[in-house]
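[agent] plan:
  1. take the single chain provided in the ticket
  2. run structure prediction with default settings
  3. attach structure tokens to the ticket
  4. add a short note for the reviewer (M.T.)
[agent] executing step 1
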Amino acid sequence: MSKTCFVEFNGSGFWAFSDSLAVLLGQTVVVAKEMAADRRSAAFEDVVDQLRASAVVTDLGLLVDEDWRGDRLDLLMQLIEEANRRLGERGRVTASEVRGWTVLGEDVIELRRDTVDTAPVVELGQGVLQLLRESLPPAPEGTWWFYGVEGGRQTIVMRNVES
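[agent] step 2 finished; step 3 output follows
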């Protein structure tokens, strides 16, 4: 399991600390499961299935398909907004609590730390929402944004990739 993972939508993206992304997406699935059946759109299962897989296998990161417009994208943003609100009220979550979130069958979310402060997770959620709304400011030249870390959003240097 990698410590970092990539979040991408429509050709743009940033890096995130994997524990923070797992907590954000896990809480987003919890929110989705509590959603009344009559409020679930046709896109519901597509969105939630991707969130489940990405929450448990953070090496996948979060790749939001460019075709996700309209209902799918709206639903994803609503779920993340509510997850962010709940996490913001908490202050912190424990690894045992997160393992108790039924996300993907019997697979559980495994974290590196016993306790996760939720402020970096909420900031990550805000970054994801900005990315989905295509309002995320560009990172400084030659860097990527890095979200979900203590002390707030940071930058990391892009590596030169030789083809």
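[agent] step 4 note for reviewer: The beta strands are 4-9, 12-17, 62-64, 92-94, 115-117, 143-147, 154-157.
[agent] ticket updated
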